[in-house]
Structure formats: C-alpha cells, structure tokens
Request: fold
Amino acid sequence: MSNKLKQPIMVVKSDLLFANHHFEGFLPQHEYDYEKRILANYEYLPRGIAEENPKYRQTIPYAIICNENQEIFTYQRTSGDNAGIEERLHGKWSWGVGGHIDQQKKIESNPIYATLLREIFEEIGVTKYRTIKILGYVNNESDSVGRVHFGILYRVNVISPKLIIQKREIDQGRFMSIQEIASINNDDNCIVEEWSQHALKALKIT
Reply:
C-alpha cells in the first residue's frame, strides 16, 4: 500500500450518516443538515481501507468555482501516469474542485471547511472569495466511486481570480458559461463525472 493510501482520511459510518434519512442524487441544504451530522460522527481510516469499504463514506467538500461573470471553472482530468491515484476519474470532465479530508496534527473546529479552502488553493491557486455557500449534498450509489464517498456541494464566488493550475491531475481548465458546460455534459464524446452532473442540476435549481 502506498503512503497516500495509508494516509488517514475523514469517514463516517454509512448507517450513521443515513440514519432515518437516505437519498440518492442531489439534496438541497435546506432539506437536511448532513454537515452537522458528519461533524458529530466522523472518524479517520487509512484511505486504502476506506476506498474498498462501503460501510463508510469518505466526506468530500466539492466546490463549484464561479467568477464575477457567473462563469464556472471547468476542467478535464489528466489521463495516464500523471493522473493521480484515483484511476476511476482519469480523463473525465469536471466543474467541481475538492478532495479528501486528511487528518491534521492541528485540531480544526470544522475540518470540512478548512479542507475546502486548502483544496481550492492547492488546485487552482485562489485565495480570495466573495461568498462561500453550501448548496447541498451529493450521494451517487450507481458506481464504485460513489458508493464509498459523500459530497458536500459548495458554490464559491471568487474575486477576479487569476488561476494557477497547480495539480498534475488537471489537464486543461478555464472558466466557462453554464451553457458551455451544459454542452459538454450533453456531448456523447465527453465523459463527465457523476458528481459534476449532479452539480449542474443543483446550479439550475438553487
């Protein structure tokens, strides 16, 4: 097991997460506060173990990045040797920025939010925001990735961003209109992450 897969990451037991309130797809924030439930019940497991155990859900902050023109940061993930360890996402299109919540030496009051800010900086170099809002939650049980992850979907409005794509997992990326990303989503030649498909629906209804 690689060092990355040995890294403890935040998880929550699936039966605790969905106790008396299960959903599939996208759920708006106002319908249920899953963030509160996660913060009350999370623990840490090595990533390699969590990736293979659907009895736990890995919490992922997943941000839609919007500029002042209401355009959305959209990118295609790298394929091949430089694409990172999550092979199930290689080459796919996405308009969500986020990642796993690593266990930190410093105790944070809200490790989900702290990780969100770190991931945005580490992936695209953005540090200035106008607003950050939880839109809702994503639960996709149709594939092996979704069955071990749970997404908290944010809309992050940034201030005049100059993007610095810093992660090798991103092959190409730029801000696009919602019409442009809808075209990508409907293009049979483009493979779009399931979570991004749910995020597009969320943008249209929130």
